[in-house]
Amino acid sequence: MPIVIPKELPAVEILQNENIFVMNDTRAKHQDIRPLKIIILNLMPNKIETETQLLRLLGNTPLQTEITLLKTATYQSKNTSEDHLESFYKTFDEIKEHTFDGLIITGAPIETMPFEEVSYWDELVEIMEFSKTNITSTLHICWGSQAGLYYHHGIQKYLQDKKTFGVFEHDLYNKTNPLLRGFNDETYIPHSRYTTVLKEDINKVDELELLLYSEESGVCLVASKDRKHVYMSGHLEYDSDSLQKEYFRDVEKGLDIHIPKNYFKNNDTSKEPVVKWRAAAHLLFANWLNYCVYQETPFELR
């Protein structure tokens, strides 16, 4: 089934060329089916790239989803045109009187800052509080997962000695959890971050369950036992060249950055990256939509 998005959104042409089923909002209005209403709170600088990555995964399931793109009102993006933001994005004030099936909170390149020093922290807190009553399930990604674990459960993040950067092998901690249905026993997931949360802190919170963990990169996937909140520190949504772009960007800036682990063939940066996470990405997003959202949400949202 398709994702329902405005026909002018730049992601439409890209996804159609990849054979992802996209339906424009005009056509969707003539169908007698209720789509899942999903918000994407996009905190990344390059919003069009992040939109496309997430829509690619949301659009490859049997469920029809209607997407609302959300931006912060308290911070003005410098990397996405105002015309694009005005055309396709809403602010929280415009949607806060409504109820939605799902919410995705993306990462943001601000992870070394204390949460309370982030310019839009108060606004994000308001949205996370809203998610308790007006959202069936929320998927938090990377910095968004750290923010959610901190706000909802009081779990701190810690600065690492060096950046966790590459594609890391993870073990499944509960193979019977619906979020992990279809997963291989060992799963590779991209990470790119300077901070982390600790497994022992997760284990102290009774309402949380650790689902994916790596001895090298640490905590990856955590969920509340009612699956209302899902926290993923990795970037399953990444394109094949996302880490490649980050690596060469940091090299050009003269930063002390190591080659992303398990990414380039034979660690040769002149070769194309090897994608090891694509199947897991589609599985996780399909499982989240099905078991955390579709199976739990009421037919009539109020």
Task: Explain this structure.
This protein has 302 residues and is α/β, with parallel strands linked by helices. The chain has a single domain (3-159, 170-238, 278-294), classed as Class I glutamine amidotransferase (GATase) domain (Rossmann fold, 3-Layer(aba) Sandwich). 30% of the residues lie in helices and 25% in strands. The protein has helices at 11-17, 25-28, 47-58, 82-88, 92-95, 121-134, 143-153, 199-203, 242-252, 278-294, and strands spanning 3-5, 22-24, 36-41, 65-70, 89-90, 100-105, 135-141, 158-172, 186-196, 208-214, 218-224, 229-232. Strands 1, 2, 3, 4, 5, 6, 7, 8, 9, 10, 11 and 12 form a twelve-stranded mixed sheet that branches. Helix 3 links the parallel strand 3 and strand 4 (65-70). The model has no long low-confidence stretch (mean pLDDT 91).
Share of helix, binned: 25-40%
CATH A-level architecture: 3-Layer(aba) Sandwich
What is the molecular shape?
Answer: globular
Mean pLDDT: 91
CATH evolutionary superfamily:
Class I glutamine amidotransferase (GATase) domain
Largest sheet: 12 strands, mixed
Helix-and-strand structural type:
alpha/beta
CATH level 1 class label: Alpha Beta
The total number of structural domains is 1
- Tell me the number of helical segments per DSSP (H or I, 4 or more residues long): 10
**End-to-end Cα distance:** 24 Å
The low-pLDDT segments are none
